Amino acid sequence: DKGELTEELEAQGLYFAARNEFRLSLLLDPELAAARDGFNRMDREVRAAINVSKADMDIRGGELGKAAALLEEADSLSEAQKDQISLKEAEIEETRFRELYDRAVSFERDYKYTEAVEVYGQLLEETEVFADARERKATVEWMMSEAESLYAQAQEAPEPEDALELYGRIDELIWPEFRDVRERMAQIERELARQAAVDGSEGG
Known about the structure:
This protein is mostly helical and about 200 residues long. The chain is about 85% helix and about 0% strand. It is built from nine helices and no strands.
């Protein structure tokens, strides 16, 4: 009978079809309370299902805020789709974490270490473990510290050749364009060239 049919449709998650069956029952008997309750219940589930579908498209399109709002509304409407809604909410969170991670990696690759550490930190405040974010943050922080250490050593180096070697390690291996490293290297190279020219003229 229709009661068994609607129960089966509802149990299978076919909310559109179940709502239609309840609607047909109401057309036959507008006073049928069970049909009215069932129609209203399925109408909420249908609206929730539409929101979940729209949220899925928004997640794929990167519209995470819109997706979250749709899922919040779906959760308030639905009794039967809590698991699906929770899965989509988890997907939003995972996508947001991935976006933060990718942004931090991009900063790191562009040698924007300060920005990279900030974004890695933001990510790790929200989730203690995500890919290798903690290890990458620690590595970038070490690189920053190493650049500072070599810079200080270069400033105290007794010979210009030593300073040039230390500045070169920073520029080539650790942090290109760190502070004024390239300007200092160019200045030392000019001074060494001048001294070589003087020595050459005196030797001649």
